[in-house]
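RETRY 2/3 - previous attempt timed out on the joint model. Re-submitting the same 268-residue input unchanged.
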Amino acid sequence: MTNQNNEVTYSIGELAKEFDITPRSIRFYEEQDLLSPERTGQTRIYCNKDRVRLKLILRGKRLGFSLAEIKNLFELYDSNANSMLQLEAMLKMTEQKRAILRQQLDDIQMLMNELDEVEKRCRDELADLQKRGC
Amino acid sequence: MTNQNNEVTYSIGELAKEFDITPRSIRFYEEQDLLSPERTGQTRIYCNKDRVRLKLILRGKRLGFSLAEIKNLFELYDSNANSMLQLEAMLKMTEQKRAILRQQLDDIQMLMNELDEVEKRCRDELADLQKRGC
DNA sequence: CCTAACCCTAACGTTAACGTAAATCAATTT
DNA sequence: AAATTGATTTACGTTAACGTTAGGGTTAGG
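RETRY 2/3 succeeded.
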């Protein structure tokens, strides 16, 4: 659908289906101040910006961030920090998050290696089974 | 400490301190069948293999895996699968985990990009503040 | 007019992963 | 001998992130 400004909009059900989650989850994210869609009457109307936000929420979740941390990132992103103190706090925050992501990159690399091993052992045994006739 | 085979061993407290978690957590992982240390009397004695396992558990956690999934990975790793069906199931599992890790790599890349943006905006404003005398 | 398919709020229930407290035991230290 | 330190079990408490149920409103189709 489109709203009065000819922008694309979504119902809660559409977004739920698109991202394979329940409407309950989306409402919950709103309750936690991660979303704030428009309304027509009681009904929530999500614009594209809301949809992007939701995508970011789910991305954060896949990386093991809590909703509180994700909210934190949003506030960081939205904030019009103007004092030097605020700006420096923000830089500190981004660096912290970056450190977590780097750690995760390491973790992924090591887990991938272990999966390689498991897989190799597995293929070897399969080949062995084939050779001995099966 | 070392055990009768001259292998290095650890108390629960030592491991807890090393990995910056509580003994309670370590006992909980055991309760969930993720660890199975030896005992002398009542006291748990962890060998190096246990320590490695613990490291793997924490790595999995940092990547957002549940303890159940981690246990799953362990069983996969330990399993002496011998039937073709089992081996193929294992390959399927590793591929699934791999897909998750790839997804996370993507997620990390995108989040990093967004952090770059935030940081850039932040530095620009800081420079601006400097320029206008402060 | 009815019902099906949406939407809503409110509120209680659930699960994972521990935290925390109580009571006890064993080995050191003072 | 008394106290500290670190281990144990048992069991109830807690938080996050929803699930689920109950009750109700509104629009499109038959």
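Residues 84-131 of chain B form the longest helix (48 residues). Closing ticket.
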